[in-house]
Request: fold
Amino acid sequence: MSENIESESPLKRQLRTIIFGTDTPAGRYFDIALMVCIVLSVALVFLDTVEVFHREYGQIIRVLEWVFTIIFTLEYGLRLYCATHPVLYARSFYGIVDLLSVLPSYLALLIPGANFTLVIRILRLFRIFRVLKLLRYLSEGNVLLRAMMQSSRKVFIFFFSVSLIVMVLSAVMYVVEGPDNGFSSIPKSVYWTIVTITTVGYGDITPKTGLGQAIAAFTMLIGYSIIAIPTGILTAEISQEVGRHRDLRSCNQCHKTGHDLDAMYCSRCGCELDSLDAPVENDA
Amino acid sequence: MSENIESESPLKRQLRTIIFGTDTPAGRYFDIALMVCIVLSVALVFLDTVEVFHREYGQIIRVLEWVFTIIFTLEYGLRLYCATHPVLYARSFYGIVDLLSVLPSYLALLIPGANFTLVIRILRLFRIFRVLKLLRYLSEGNVLLRAMMQSSRKVFIFFFSVSLIVMVLSAVMYVVEGPDNGFSSIPKSVYWTIVTITTVGYGDITPKTGLGQAIAAFTMLIGYSIIAIPTGILTAEISQEVGRHRDLRSCNQCHKTGHDLDAMYCSRCGCELDSLDAPVENDA
Amino acid sequence: MSENIESESPLKRQLRTIIFGTDTPAGRYFDIALMVCIVLSVALVFLDTVEVFHREYGQIIRVLEWVFTIIFTLEYGLRLYCATHPVLYARSFYGIVDLLSVLPSYLALLIPGANFTLVIRILRLFRIFRVLKLLRYLSEGNVLLRAMMQSSRKVFIFFFSVSLIVMVLSAVMYVVEGPDNGFSSIPKSVYWTIVTITTVGYGDITPKTGLGQAIAAFTMLIGYSIIAIPTGILTAEISQEVGRHRDLRSCNQCHKTGHDLDAMYCSRCGCELDSLDAPVENDA
Amino acid sequence: MSENIESESPLKRQLRTIIFGTDTPAGRYFDIALMVCIVLSVALVFLDTVEVFHREYGQIIRVLEWVFTIIFTLEYGLRLYCATHPVLYARSFYGIVDLLSVLPSYLALLIPGANFTLVIRILRLFRIFRVLKLLRYLSEGNVLLRAMMQSSRKVFIFFFSVSLIVMVLSAVMYVVEGPDNGFSSIPKSVYWTIVTITTVGYGDITPKTGLGQAIAAFTMLIGYSIIAIPTGILTAEISQEVGRHRDLRSCNQCHKTGHDLDAMYCSRCGCELDSLDAPVENDA
Reply:
């Protein structure tokens, strides 16, 4: 869109279409190849932590890890080279994720035992979101995201009230059960309360006294009934979002709205309707 | 419907009505007898794995297993014999399930210790779906299926996002807790994260460090709140499906739509309405 | 309503008003006294199973148990005496529950160690439902019951499909994990699968092999996502029931319907509306 | 509003604006400072129960605890001094909470080992609700609260029915499993049933016999399906509340109602709409 785009080399322009675009077949193949590389490289990181694999195939895994690192380094260099605004790209969310998927391998070379780089290498997975664009799944994700945004205030109030209840119950259980039964401190007691109120129930810490078991039963019933609240909030919002989504499906000929999500033709004039995603992507 | 049906023997035609049909009393009795055989034969497979039963009644169970195998073999032969298109039947979903319910017993005769045939023998249960047709429960199942199909894209996006969160949390927990506390590899850590985020909480692997317990509590709260999302998606879709189902209930006389699901007479002209399942089965 | 009611003694008629009715103050006091007796007698049964209470207060508990038995026997006799149709009462649901709350104590006298009578004695609790009538909570219960009846077919299809999945998964886990890891038989494996798919997760049986843990994780995700289905079904039905309930709130003057559940006056003509429960109880 | 307000000192009036009000910048800073103090003082109580912190920083924690106690005492004194009606304030809900957040520290001075004062000190957290007023989150909380009030009768009926089922199942499990398998009394069996029916599943008490495991599986399936009921009730109510909330958004110019929750301008005449919270806070 700016002037210096006009003067750039055709190679750079073509590379940009392939690497950043998803409309040409070449761009699509590039995205799919990239997604496969990401998934394989993360699978390698996972397998390398398994004792047996590390012993047997440790050498191969390390080589493959370097192959992927070089691929991602090349890709990052190409993106920097052919981006319209390299600095803007490097500072963008995806630019940072792209850099983070390359750096840890070099760091691991310098600091051998640094397994905290593991976690950063796994952040590569977020690059898949970029590839998802070509799958046209985003409009569905938008409905979910908007529903969550709409209900975020109610959910905040909910979690705030729940955390107050959790803290009071934790203090009560610490006093009732005491360190002898595993409730060694209030923070540990908070851990137990969350394990109980979310109905996870590991059983690593359990009440032993009668009173403690009664309070635990009460905590469970609270958890059981308040699980309904976020569900209710979100369901109400998603219902509204789906309804609004449907209203967006208007006929280009007679402008009738409110068609079914899977309708292909206008129910009044019989004209073909736009595909489901179109109206949403236009305003997104 | 094709010409060779006309020339076939009346016995074959009558057998087909009984074996494949559900409209005549004989066809219904055949289906019920078949269902009883399936349930009994699967119950036998289950009981045979219980130590006590195997020791005491092993002989009887083996005999009965052969009786059912012969019954199902005969039934499969009869179906092949009287099907309008034997090859089409043999290749259809139910044709393969019917064959699979017979073969494993013969295989078990040749390879004595092959208890993987167990699982295939249990697939017999899917034959019950065929029998369910006569119970007129399918229209209800259709409402559920359609609701699930409609929401499958949103659910896919949901599970994709959840699996990203699961992998990142697994890597974090592997680094924080380490092999000493049971998180021996990232795949094992993924297992723990799924156990936690789905609120199952076996307790076979639990965090021991303070930081690990804090992250675990955070994981539980995520699981607790995102359980609301698929519920919200599906509820919105089922509500719409039920509404659409109601719209299908139109009066044959005055064509008024939108009657209650349990209404017997048209609320405007008083004519008797079709039964609930009729309009759906017509278009299914 | 029949002729012999006219000729019966006034005492009998008054007793019936007190024992069976809930409209007079005396009838209400009788019901509340009865509810207190039921709750106390069940609390006694519960406390008697606690080691400490049994040792310390066993004698007192046994005496009180007899006091309550005599009270309930007297009450049952009075009900039989003053019922309009004693035989019909004795055969009715509540008649049988009333008898069952008396008999076990006598049986326990004859067969000392029979602690199966415990369970029958606790069935007394169902008598509280009769007392609830006076609390006017039944119309709310009706909304729930009707919603559940409406959705029972969908829920049946759901549970039928789930039980098929459970059985196949159980057989797979039995083959994969085997008796060495606690999956000693398929029925036990079914128990494990239900513990997992309902997200209870005791942890008394857990998968040990890598493949088993992968299948377990898959089972949990199934359980996690299908928990949404019954919720969706029921929510859709309850929404409809609440809506229908609202439609029943019509103004006696101008016949406008659809008033809020907590509205006191007609929104069009300003006349006072009937209380919430009235229209429902009339047609129930 | 009463006459003696006019005659009071300007200092007192200004103090009241700062301490009780949330409209002036000074009042807002006071509230935020107070919230920070509350959170810090509760964090201190929590950390003090951790063995390591108590040993290392016990001295500092005790000093800081006294600093906060003096701050809260001063604040309570100021509130009493500048309240329009000191007696009404002292008797109000927040007045009592304010007093309770000060007293326990003095009590702990007199009775050294009294760790039941812990719980009371944590009740300080409820003072945060007062501060939340300035965050304008209350209208969202009102929607939730009203939805819960509306559905409280249905939820009561639900919990009453569930508790009957729990008691009967507990008695059955006590008889089936008996004290040898951990079901040492019916109250303990009730604890197990609640752990199971809420899908918490600690695993500290688990059925060992085949029949017990079958009943346990049945209990889980009940818990799994009835979890849908409160969700359904609440979702239906929240949907209605959100709808009603939307109806309240009327245009001041043309009086059109039913605008979207995030709409800024009237969809008919284009006038600016009031902010979301305004109409609710007016009638609350």
About this structure: Chain B touches chain C through 51 residues (CB under 8 Å). Residues 276-284 of chain B have pLDDT under 50 and may be disordered. The CA atoms of residues 47 and 53 of chain B lie 6 Å apart. Chain B is about 70% helix and 0% strand.
